[in-house]
Amino acid sequence: MDKKNIIEEMIRVNHAGERGAIKIYEGQIKALKFLKQEESLIQEIQEMRDHELEHLHFFENEIIKRNVRPTFLLPLWDLLGTTLGIGTALLGKKATALCTAAVEEVIGGHYSDQIETLENDFKEEKSLKDTFSKFRDDELEHKDKAEKMGSTNSGVYYVLDTIIKGTSRLAIEVSKRI
Ligand SMILES: [Fe+2]
Ligand SMILES: [Fe+2]
Q1: How many angstroms is it from 100 CA to the middle of ligand 2?
Q2: Which residues are CB-neighbours of 119 under 8 A, at least 6 positions away?
Q3: What is the CATH number of domain 3-177?
Q4: Which of 34, 56, 82, 167 is close enough to 18 for a disulfide, judged by CB 3.0 to 4.6 Å?
Q5: Which ligand is nearest to the CA of 53?
Q6: Can you give the pTM of this predicted structure?
C-alpha cells in the first residue's frame, strides 16, 4: 500500500472511532439520566464525551484538509455506539464503566500502533504523531477513570468485556477499508 493510503486509512478509521465513542457516551448519558443515576457519574461521562468531541473535530478537519473519504459505515458506527451506550447503562454502573474501560483500552492500543508506524515510516508527519499521542493519553485516562468507576471483568462481565473488545476491533479493521 502506498504511503498516502496508509495515512488516509488512519484518518478514516479514527474519524469513525471517535464518532462511535461519542455515540456510546451520549447513549449512556441519556440512559443514566432516564434512570436518575447520580449526577457525579453523569458528569464524569460528559467530560469524557467532551474530549471525544475535541478528537472528532480534529479528524473532521483532517478529512477535509487531506481530502479523505469517510467510511461508508458511519451509520453502522452510530447505531453500534448508541446501542452499546444505552445497553450498558441499562445494565448498571458496573457495565457502564466496563464498556468505557474495554473500548478505551482497544482505542488506546490502536493509537499506540499508529504512533509507532508514524514514528518509523512517516517522519514528516510529526504533528500528526504528536496529536495522536495526546489523544492516546486522553483515551488511557478515560480507561483509568472507568476502572475507578468500578469496572470489572470478572464473572458475567468477562463475556461482555470480550464482546465489546471483539466488536471494537472488528469495527476498526472494517472501517480502515470500507
Ligand atoms: Fe477519543
Ligand atoms: Fe476516550
Answers
A1: 8
A2: 129
A3: 1.20.1260
A4: 56
A5: 1
A6: 0.90
